[in-house]
Amino acid sequence: MSIFRTVSTRAEARDLRSQAALAGLLSAILAVTGLALASAASAAPEDSASAAMVDAEGEPVGTVELTETPHGTLLIVSLENLPEGVHAFHVHETGSCEPPFTSAGGHFNPTGAKHGLEVPEGMHAGDMPNFHVPSSGEVTLEVFNAQLTLSDELLDDDGAAIVVHAGADDYRSDPAGDAGDRIACGVIKGGTGG
Ligand SMILES: [Cu+2]
Ligand SMILES: [Zn+2]
């Protein structure tokens, strides 16, 4: 089956990468140019993904670009036409965004933890800090999530989604931070063009 072939190819690629690192080849590449490394990373589809975000009326409100790094996943968030104020920002467990976005399921939580950055029994892998939207309705930010990997988790069979809420995450209330309605959602799709 093609699924298994893909998985084994990824595993082989990972083995090759670690061997290269051991041989010092990675540092040599870094020394030559950071650009070469960047283009090599973008050539591997499983290392990047994006979510086209829509509001509850289905109107586009921007994008979230995700890039897997050796330490987790970097999210570059570029949104517009959002209500002014503080908004919760999470990865949810299902790649489906049918308004009012309950189809995205709960927070991405492969370890069965409780919700919340401030909770000792937390946190969900999909929990991330709130962001603040000014009166323009536009926000651009970069968020690093050390608990996420794209290829093994977010791009699995049922996918995953990025969700923005009407209110702030209180960082404590299980299961979702008491953050209110889901006002924007985007399915995470592999490759930079997705
Ligand atoms: Cu959420
Ligand atoms: Zn959570």
Can you walk me through this structure?
By secondary structure, the chain is an alpha+beta fold. The protein folds into two domains: 2-43; 46-190, Sandwich (Immunoglobulin-like), CATH 2.60.40. The protein is built from four helices and eight strands. The protein has helices at residues 2-22, 25-32, 34-43, 150-154, and strands spanning 48-55, 60-69, 72-79, 85-92, 127-133, 139-145, 161-165, 182-190. It has an eight-stranded antiparallel sheet. The model is unreliable at 1-9 and 25-45 (pLDDT under 50). Residues 88, 90, 92, 107, 163, 165, 176 line the site of copper (II) ion.
Structure in a nutshell:
The protein has 194 residues and is α+β, with helices and mostly antiparallel strands. 23% of the residues lie in helices and 32% in strands.
Compute the separation of the termini in Å: 24 Å
* Total number of distinct structural domains: 2
How many helical elements?
Answer: 4
Q: What name is given to the CATH topology of the largest domain?
A: Immunoglobulin-like
Count the beta strands: 8
Percent helix range? 10-25%
Secondary-structure-based class equals alpha+beta
- CATH-assigned homologous superfamily of the largest domain: Superoxide dismutase, copper/zinc binding domain
Radius of gyration equals 18 Å
What is the mean predicted local confidence, pLDDT?
83
Corresponding CATH architecture of the largest domain = Sandwich
Bound molecules: copper (II) ion, zinc ion
Q: Could you spell the SSE succession in H and E letters?
A: HHHEEEEEEHEE
